[in-house]
């Protein structure tokens, strides 16, 4: 039996999602016979951690502070073991621009992109480069903040006239944004657990939005908004390739414990692309990782135990 | 599915009894699908979790929230509260703890009549249905009148809290534009004629005539007469939602719609803004047959509203003149409104427009159409200030560049600081858009001077025709 600090909430935009993930983890830990201490992360986090003296911390935070290495750095400082990836891997994965550069450097397929900071536009006249970028990427262009999860702030610009407003929206979430070539295809998620010797991929989940344009925030967290298929119905070679790509992303970003890699499958061209890696994937009722685990015969409690076992 | 208590650690539920059979923790794909297939059709139009989750952040203690619709309950004397509860305990303990009649206690109906009289209406006890807040009136009216696909006409924008109600009854909602004098009657007539041409007749017209939530405007006296005339001619009901009528800071008072026609007006009142939203008590006054159906609807919903609350309100009305507290609120809110109007004039870029409410709790701000206020909220939260994105006040996706600001929930200093932060964030976006479109040269003057670069566009005009108010 361990005393486990379940870190949840915080002031990230995904606070509510994190509270749901955290509550489920606490319930599972209760059932597993551990001693969970839920902590809604705030200014008193260090005090709360010192006071509760946990054996280990379960990081159930999503988004800013929780997935970008901030909380992990703090836990390192306090010498508290924690679940999931280490600081440097979190920094690499949470910043989509860094992650995509790393993928491109290692020739892992990822949609072509250009990234800019607010400064580039304000101080360096980057707007002058937009026409060339539009020509290169073609429409629609996906515009997203570099560091936001749950598809918040993602816009599709369909004409060059709508690019500035899309950029403006993305800059509401982060000081750095990226413009990405749109891949028309199927949303796949490969969940990975690394509690043993080598990371292992779970069955692929495909998310098919029922009515929405793409797999957005609503579709992610509301029952009935998305149809899931697990294992995804894919040609065998495609499934194998998707897993190979996901595992190489896991490895090249230096991830640990567990993670989820999102991919797009352009079935007309038979091409796979990695979009991003999530170092603290959602653990809510509608989240993909728990579904994938379930399809592999790993119930939620066992999943939580395995993630905990891999904590260092 | 919610996580329950915001901070589970402080009020943690007891651990499950070890003897109990372990609950299955399965979240298999097919289970999610199975629930999905069980949901009623109407749940698919009940949005939106993104907005809901963002709004949850606005309640964080470090955020200056101009997002709530909250009256300030902090000035209600705790001693009075204790004394009133003491009175309830001494006089009506058993009855307060008991179920009551669906239509409400007789005694509270006298309180309702007093408030109605202050609003210029005389009603009988038999015309009143006591409800759980004004919100329940909206729900009961929908429940009583709407079949899926029925048309409801409302203002553009409309009360954000009514949107999920309309949607959950699968109404087809048609917005009618407003201006500084409230709902535009010419537009209403055109809308009704267009609907009639298509063989449709709305079941009711929903309106907040006084100090509109969220638009902040008031329906003019002349338009009230016209609206009532149209309703009787076409035999369409009007739901007059009047939570803010008593909170008037300036300008003339206009007759309630129900005072002009009892035949076609359903009136929704509430104790939330003149006493406390926590008592969750409101009322409906409606034509007899409608009220009867609403009563049956209420039986099905909750049998009766809280007896404890009703006795509390009765004791409050008995203890002294209830208008005194309302006057103190009016003084406080007027100062806060003025502080917000001044701060808006000082801090918002020239491209922004806003309304000048003569009462109520809200100001409606419209920004250039390239700014999406839902995204802007994320940025504003970073600066620890919050508002309600305008899209919440429409069913058709409009309102994307507008926002609702509340001035009653926080003090003047916080209002000024909140608007300053908001102005900074908006100014930043206006400047950035300038550089993105090349409308302004890199590193040039601040937004306030950049007005000519951003002419109004059609989208803005479609949202709300309101002249900018100059308070200086």
**What structural class is derived from the secondary structure elements of chain B?**
alpha/beta
CATH architecture of the largest domain in chain B, by name, is 3-Layer(aba) Sandwich
CATH superfamily of the largest domain in chain A: ATP-grasp fold, B domain
CATH class of the largest domain in chain A: Alpha Beta
CATH architecture classification name of the largest domain in chain A: 2-Layer Sandwich
Any descriptors?
heterodimer; A: 312 residues; alpha+beta; Rossmann fold; D-amino Acid Aminotransferase, Chain A, domain 1; Dna Ligase, domain 1; 3 domains; six-stranded antiparallel β-sheet; 37% helix; B: 472 residues; alpha/beta; Aspartate Aminotransferase, domain 1; Aspartate Aminotransferase, domain 2; eight-stranded mixed β-sheet; four-stranded antiparallel β-sheet; 12% strand; globular; disordered C terminus
